[in-house]
Amino acid sequence: MTADDSFGRLDDDDYPACTMGRAAEILGTTPGFLRAIGEARVITPLRSQGGHRRYSRYQLKIAARVRELVDQGVSVEAACRIVILEDQLEEAMRINEELRGSPSTSRPGGMLPPGRPEEVRSARVELDGEGAEDVGHVDPEDGPLVSA
């Protein structure tokens, strides 16, 4: 490994460069706090060959967010859950944005699927064998189903 390879790792947010003591110092917290959020599986530090925990910059950012919530009075368990949900939401939004930009999923004229739009524009339902009743229509300007 060359010196250039070693220095390149410093820019890698996922490289586990910080020891537990250094990570706790950076965050202004205790090693016990880092162990607690590790047990909650918010972050999973990698281990050195000697078995010591090592934290990446990305993991420190997550731990800092948990710490911020705890400082606001949220319990550690609740803060961990909030951070996990925030991360899941961010990922879902990223995937949604990717899919919206994809030519295979984008549809001209709103969210109407390709095919026979007349079947989509008028929703009809059978009621007690008395025939069909209009229950709504899709306005191409509005997109979703609206009441008639």
Tell me what you see in this structure.
With 148 residues, the chain is an alpha+beta fold. The protein has six helices and six strands, in the order H-E-H-H-E-E-H-H-H-E-E-E. It has helices at 3-9, 20-27, 31-39, 57-71, 76-101, 117-121; strands at residues 18-19, 46-47, 53-55, 122-126, 132-138, 145-146. The strands form two sheets. The chain has a three-stranded antiparallel sheet with strand order 1-3-2. It has a three-stranded antiparallel sheet with strand order 4-5-6. Helix 4 (57-71) packs across helix 5 (76-101). The protein is flat.
Q: Structural class from helices and strands?
A: alpha+beta
Shape: flat
Segments where pLDDT lies below 50 for 5+ residues?
Answer: 105-148
Termini separation (Å)? 70 Å
Mean pLDDT: 76
- The percentage helix is 40-55%
Radius of gyration over C-alpha positions, nearest whole angstrom? 26 Å
**Total of DSSP H or I helical runs spanning 4+ residues:** 6
Biggest sheet, spatial arrangement of strands: 1-3-2
- Total strand segments: 6
- What order do the helices and strands follow? HEHHEEHHHEEE
Oligomer: single chain
Please give a handful of descriptors for the protein shown.
single chain; 148 residues; alpha+beta; 3-stranded antiparallel beta sheet; 6 strands; 14% strand; flat; disordered C terminus
